[in-house]
User: Fold this.
Amino acid sequence: MFLRCVKSMDELRQMSVLSGFLRCKVEEKGWSIKKFAEETGLSDSYAYELLAESRKKIPTDEVLNKIADVMGFGKNDRKYILDLALKEREIGGPIYPPSPIPLPEPDLPPELPVLSEPEPHPSAPHPQPPSPQPGTVLPEPESPPSPPGPFPHPPALEPSPGPVEVSWTHRKVILGVVVGLIAGLLFGCCGSSVFIPLICQYLNIQNYPYFYGF
Assistant:
């Protein structure tokens, strides 16, 4: 990690592992040591000593956690500097290369959940008609209504009878009755009964059925 930040092998031998790691992180952000002190709330003298080639003090976990929060360290980088400080306390001083603790692995981005394809739902089976029970007589399907037949033709109109011709004999009777009635009016009621038969006899209609009614 911090091997790319040192300029020479002599500087690598003189700088502790923890100081070199923190110095690389500061340079990656483009900060100066003074800017690093302002952002972390450390004094300038302590910040210079912490990132110096020769360091005597061991930073506390509180200071390291604050540095990790301000600089946005991931889980692996935070654990790495805390383990280095713990090891320095155990041996009583800074650790110089070669480092007894392996360098931290880079933080991997969180794995995205794999979206499983939705399983296709089986289509619902089509309903089947109920099977006939033994001994059950199924009704016959109704036949469609037959189309209507041709409309009946209207009955032929019978020719209207012509004017009824009145026979000449009937006319004679009517004429005799009319003349008899006129004579009756002139000569009285008895005149009608006398003149009507006479007139009919004169008109030769004795055989007409109406004549016998008088």
Remarks:
- Residues 168-187 form the longest helix (20 residues).
- Residues 2-91 form a domain with the 434 Repressor (Amino-terminal Domain) fold (CATH 1.10.260.40).
